[in-house]
User: Which sequence fits this backbone?
């Protein structure tokens, strides 16, 4: 008998799911505040949806097969191709800008990465139909607000932001040829991981010799908006080219979020479909771990879906955030507590327990009771194990008098409450909000 | 270029997703009130997880393939085998009864059913470790409360409830042999769809001749608890055998839910692993459509997961509920409205719009504003298209005076509010609850 999930797949027990739902709740709440609406798509898609975007080499990283109808299909590794199809199919139905988000589970089969997950959940937020820097700022602000919503400040989460138009202009100003740009981007992207010597060799391999190679690496080390603008002063139309980055940065300052933001020219984002602002969110303490990555991709929807609309967005996975939350609090959040456990003193009290439990549940209170006859002490023990905030004993005397004792399970204090009042005034629940 | 989802898979636009999330919210809220915790599992599982339960014939209905590691895998068609594995792996970690629920997306590839969905979402709620009728009642009550939470009363939703122990005892009392029980169950199950003549022929084919066949069909037509108990009076140990059904029915009466319930001996549930109470929820107006089905399956967890625990639960899909909600209201629910649209009168007002938008979002208000310079009339038009409840104009005069006009987009009425007061007292939002 098979007794385990497949390698890289997770069985999510209630404590895991509670933490995940907490993250999903913040993703949804922040999206709603920014006017974004949720959409969804199929976890299984035609394989060509992905090869059309990423080429045949993507197939090696996918779960793909032929279905019983002879179709080549794949478990989705990303949402953007689905998004492109959905927007293209009904573009005229939606007022621009389109503000959509989704929380899909994504799948990758990578042979070499033993022990690593092959599925994860990813929050995708995209703003479609608006090319300006305020749209970029809007999306970056939403990413920051997610982290703020989870309790992280600028001391623990950093945004690194660059602009592909800026780095391109600076690289070409430094003498890099158009066809060498890919190699130059790759070196810029590695500036914090590899030595300058190694990168100089790599650039030389791509035909970028010294002193141009030195200039490329110097550009990759530029930090801060002022320094970027200073470098742009040396380039034709440099001021104009810097406007997008400047305005996006300024908008984040107006929103009070700029203390999270570092302009950092080493941020390239590997995927070559980005056309403007690019950004990543990092754990400030272990800066290699990206929490989120995104940027502007103005040509991609046309290439994928045949619809010519500018777009900006990001993807944010559940795994790094979960690790951050667990490491911060020391322990995962516990599943939601029960509000009250009803104790039947004798078997003839069960009908009243059933009636009352349902009346309380009907006003949103979380209730349990023993599903078989048990001693009062045993029932109270279960109430405690289940983390119930209160216990109420119902016996013949209580039914006779119409009053029950409400026991606070944390403090042991007790209070007399008329049964009829239990559903009217929830003070006995100890400050729990009325549902 | 591929421009469509696979046959049987849904692209879920925001209006679809909003309706689905509304259903999920009710599933989660009712589960929480009953003390159930959410869990999750992999959408891709070892194929043998399903063949072990349902035999090789299930393979014809699955999306299955060999992964790159040579494993036979399948997209999950149901959650129970995953649940059995998860409970078996950590049974001692959880206090019994275990109350768990999940909302997986499930997959079936059925060649013949063109136009039908091949994926759906299914709410699964299971109570594990308690064999008594109060546990059955608990689970049925949760199913009813979901429908009540969605606005359906006993005039539109019916529970049909039976007990496999009861029908078995009655069938054997009528002269059906042990090895004929499967054929008898199949005839009982079909009593409302097929003619008595056809069913009599079918029973004859299984070796059940008249007058036993007549008695089988008469049993299938018994409705109401009293009639069932009357029939049981004729059978050895009949009263004892009827206790479970009687107690479960009584508990639902104590909870005030019995007006939803019809005892109906034709309810068998095709799956032969049910061992006690079985039930289905139906749309009262089109009774062929089951909203939900479930029951007690005391032997299955041992067979699947090697852990000997009694269990009762149900599965409830999203598709029939969605149809019911759409047909009731005439139109699907609209995605959530925006609370306020901020209008910048001139480009120099944008910084204040950005500052204020973020301050409002930070207290949970849903805000949008124009992401490029546009005429005030155009911005107000977008505010209206986006369904914003309020619009606030911010121009040089407003920044100077520190007061803004809040326009109610539904009524056209306007109100002067100090900018500093916008985030302090939310009366200007028109009764929206403070987040």
Assistant:
């Amino acid at each position: 008998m098979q007794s385990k999930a497949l390698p890289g797949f997770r069985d999510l027990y209630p404590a895991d799911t509670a933490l995940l739902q907490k993250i999903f709740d913040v993703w949804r709440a922040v999206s709603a505040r920014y006017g974004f609406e949720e959409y969804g798509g199929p976890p299984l898609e035609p394989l060509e949806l992905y090869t059309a975007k990423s080429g045949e080499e993507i197939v090696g990283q996918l779960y793909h097969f032929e279905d019983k109808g002879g179709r080549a299909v794949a478990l989705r590794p990303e949402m953007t191709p689905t998004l492109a199809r959905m927007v293209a199919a009904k573009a005229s139905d939606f007022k621009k800008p389109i503000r959509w988000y989704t929380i899909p589970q994504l799948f990758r089969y990578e042979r070499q990465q033993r022990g690593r997950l092959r599925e994860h959940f990813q929050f995708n937020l995209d703003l479609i139909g608006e090319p300006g820097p305020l749209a970029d700022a809007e999306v970056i602000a939403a990413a920051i607000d997610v982290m703020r919503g989870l309790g992280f400040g600028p001391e623990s989460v950093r945004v690194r932001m660059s602009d592909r138009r800026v780095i391109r202009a600076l690289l070409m100003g430094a003498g890099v040829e158009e066809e060498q740009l890919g190699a130059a981007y790759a070196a810029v992207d590695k500036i914090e991981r590899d030595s300058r010597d190694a990168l100089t060799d790599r650039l030389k391999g791509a035909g970028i010799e010294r002193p141009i190679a030195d200039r490329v690496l110097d550009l990759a080390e530029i930090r801060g908006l002022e320094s970027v603008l200073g470098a742009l002063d040396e380039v034709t139309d440099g001021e104009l080219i810097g406007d997008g980055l400047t305005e996006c940065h300024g908008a984040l300052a107006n929103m009070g979020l700029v203390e999270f933001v570092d302009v950092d020219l080493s941020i390239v984002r590997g995927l070559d479909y980005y056309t403007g602002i690019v950004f990543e969110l990092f754990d400030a303490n272990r800066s290699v771990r990206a929490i989120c990555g995104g940027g502007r991709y103005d040509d991609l929807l046309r290439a994928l879906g045949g619809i010519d609309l500018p777009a900006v967005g990001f993807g944010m996975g559940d795994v790094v955030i979960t690790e951050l939350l667990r490491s911060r609090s020391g322990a995962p959040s516990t599943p939601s507590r029960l509000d009250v456990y009803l104790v039947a003193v004798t078997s003839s009290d069960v009908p009243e327990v059933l009636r009352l439990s349902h009346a309380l549940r009907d006003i949103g209170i979380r209730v349990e009771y023993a599903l078989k006859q048990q001693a009062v002490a045993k029932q109270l023990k279960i109430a405690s194990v289940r983390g119930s905030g209160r216990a109420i004993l119902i016996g013949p005397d209580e039914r006779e008098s119409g009053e029950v004792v409400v026991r606070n399970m944390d403090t042991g204090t007790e209070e007399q409450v008329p049964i009829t009042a239990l559903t009217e005034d929830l003070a006995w629940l100890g400050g729990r909000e009325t549902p």
Q: What stands out?
A: Chain A touches chain B through 101 residues (CB under 8 Å). The two ends of chain A are 45 Å apart (CA to CA). Chain A has two domains: 14-329, 340-429.
